[in-house]
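Deliverable D5.2: sample structural annotation.
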Amino acid sequence: MNTAKTVFLLTLLAGLLMFIGGMLGGRAGIMIAFVFSLIMNLFSYFFSDKIALSMYRAKPVTQQEAPELYAMVKKLCERANLPMPKLYIIPQAAPNAFATGRNPEHAAVAITQGALELLSPEELMGVLGHELGHIKHRDILISTITATIASAIMMVADMVRWAAIFGGLSRDDDDHPIVLLVVSLIAPFAAMLIQLAISRAREYEADKAGAIYSGNPLYLASALEKLENYAKAIPFQGNPATENLFIVNPFSSKGIMTLLSTHPPIEERIKRLREMAARGI
């Protein structure tokens, strides 16, 4: 269901790019914006893992240094039919975790020291299964494609906005400057909402994977409840721009800002996992 939703939203995002590009006056504007955004996001695709791990001072750990953690991830990888990722520990008390890497062969899973101390072995399996789900589904690639299209829309919208200010684009004046201005303001916001919806859909899919790989949806449901509660109590040191990486949003959002979160409501995630358990999945 969430995979189909992701495909639909990506198609919708691409359609929005074509629409606003058409208002600009043809393919040239679309191609210029798309190429620029592709170059920027390709850098992110190939180097985001190193950037994120460095940003949070994640320490690589070997099988000898963390035998229980290593054995747990290896068991989950066998269930998921994945190669063993590199393992990292983030020296922070706030419990959380993330996965990164451009493909399963170049993947890393990082977990905070706080999560290792807080979670039971079963809960930890649920969390690690969730992160392996992101790797299995190639969510870094999906987020890169999404970011590329969304960035191109924002660039084209800027072109349209400047064109509107100077009186329109087409020679026969079919596009009224006010219409162009309104579209240029709405399109980036629409692109952002679609991008957030895709991110939330991928979280649900990773939750499902975590439930299956760990063997019990209630493991992850219990872990999410703990992580959410402690995320509110223990400050997380980091950049809010990276919130989409983590299993729960480490930077608390309140009020209307929750509508702009990259994560679905934690209550809904737990509810779905409990429903999976009730169905015997």
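Annotation notes: The CA atoms of residues 38 and 148 lie 5 Å apart. Residues 2-278 form one domain.
The annotation will be released with the project's public dataset once the embargo ends.
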